[in-house]
Amino acid sequence: FTEMMSLDISDSAQIYAAFVVYLDLLEGRNWHEVKHVGVAELQLICLHAREREQESLQVMVPVPVHISLSHERIREIIKKASLPQDDPDTPLSVTLAIVESDSTVVYYKMTDGFVTPDPPDDTEDVDNKQWRKKRKRLFK
């Protein structure tokens, strides 16, 4: 926490949000290599972490719930905070970690452009009647 305080970020609520997300990733979700990175020009603390040891680093951008984000601001965050991609066809992405005052964290993955969703993990869902209806509506 003191290392985060020493970064050139003036908003203490942003520092608190970063610390809550840091603890959630490390202790609650058991992510690996969680490191904080100050982005002074955005006045944000980003967290770089791996969900699993062999996976690539992901960028988390902690944001207090009371902060309003415009489309322009989100686009600026994606451009300046995301890590360079190995594959040039992969869009830039960051995950917004929105922190409520009671320390609840909601994660939203943001990408620069459209990304098709992954198929369901559970094969039972494919046979499920509701899933077929949902798919039919999505692809009309």
Describe this structure in words.
The protein is α+β, with helices and mostly antiparallel strands and 140 residues long. The chain has five helices and five strands, in the order ααβββαββαα. The model has no long low-confidence stretch (mean pLDDT 77).
Write the layout of secondary structure elements.
Layout: H1 2-5, H2 12-28, E1 32-39, E2 44-50, E3 58-64, H3 71-81, E4 93-99, E5 105-111, H4 123-127, H5 129-138
Radius of gyration: 17 Å
User: Major β-sheet, in short?
Assistant: 5 strands, mixed
In N-to-C order, the SSE pattern is: HHEEEHEEHH
Q: Which outline best applies? A: globular
End-to-end separation in angstroms reads: 50 Å
Question: What is the count of β-strands?
Answer: 5
Briefly summarize what is shown.
With 140 residues, this protein is of the alpha+beta class.
Keywords, separated by commas or semicolons:
alpha+beta; globular
